[in-house]
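Why show two proteins at once? Because comparison is the fastest way to build intuition. When a single record is shown, students tend to memorize it. When two are placed side by side, the eye starts asking what differs. So, the first record is below.
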Amino acid sequence: MGADPDRPLLVLGSLRPGEGRQLARAWMTLPEAVRARWTVVAVPRHPRASEELGAEVAAAGVTVGADATRSDAWVWDDRMGVLVDWYRGADLAFVGGSLSAFGGHNPLEPAACGAAVMMGMHHESQMDYVRALRGGDAIELLEPGEALAGSLRRLLTDDEFRTGRAQRARAVAEAQRGSAARAVAALKDMSLWPA
């Protein structure tokens, strides 16, 4: 995907309006040495919201779509169908639609790719997956404001903590595999699935 393999990768996936601003503000509170170590890739949920999201991120002081080696720059990728490819290379992934009341997107996608996972408190549509990840101590749920910046700082600077979270997240995702087959088997047992 063109990211520097020598730098850890933070993917901000499925960003929705308002989330870019919150994440950018938290990012800009981090010491420059921390920011310079990481490559950040932002992937909006909908390309039509890309301009609005880019503007809110830029207003918070982050350069959008620029050279990823700069500590104040995020790579911006608003192409459809690229998020899982970015997750495959991620060390840490934010799952969007969750800092604002959108219900959240699937946290098992980055977990299955081996990334440490973080998302906001609005994850109603993903409750079962979040519950499984929480049960495995495999997800960071982000509170808004200063707490968000603190969580982000810890995940970006504590390599052992982040790596442990990533390993546990992958294990939880692996345990969830086969759910469609289990659902079909249960429906068959109840004579609700055609022979």
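Second record. Ask yourself what differs from the first in the token line.
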Amino acid sequence: MSIMYHEGNRQLQDQFDSRRISDRLEEKLTRTVFTAGDKDFIENAIYFFLATADADGRPDCSFKGGTAGFVRVTGPSELAFPDYDGNGMFKSLGNLMVNLHVGLLFIGLHDMPRRLRVNGTAQVSRLDPLLNKTVGGQLIVRVTARTIFPNCPRYIPKMQLLEPSIYVPQPKCDPPEPAWKSFEDFKDSIHPRQPTFKG
């Protein structure tokens, strides 16, 4: 039985006669434990994309960024990342409170193109011990991988990184407030920043 494919995938694989290669890709590339190469790629990433869905299955996708090392591989099949101060809507993490299923896409757009998908389940915590070691983190998300899959990079463009975001938490610094928090439409509704580890 496949851990990667459901009936919808199979219908299209059968229409395009791609079931054999799909099964071979699952057999040869899909894993449940991070390799040393996976760990290196993940822990050097400065961003990834996070897919979640609410209790009714309505999807949401968000960008998560930080300095290299903001995502850590914390076990053979587990990774963890912080949630930083944001707009307060908690679209992604709120979804995880009602639907634990999650998909992460790590993508290298600079140097050598690379993609790694991590699908699994997630737990969100304000009490995780990593908070005491994570500059700027207000929550920690731990993901247990169900499938880890290195995806083909052929359509990834090569891009140049000009500069990091000034809003990414740095040790011993208070990040600047984004301009939108002072806009007339929003300034009377801004929530306070949570106290976080400063390094």
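One difference worth noting in the second protein: Strands lie at 47-53, 59-65, 72-75, 78-83, 101-108, 114-125, 139-151.
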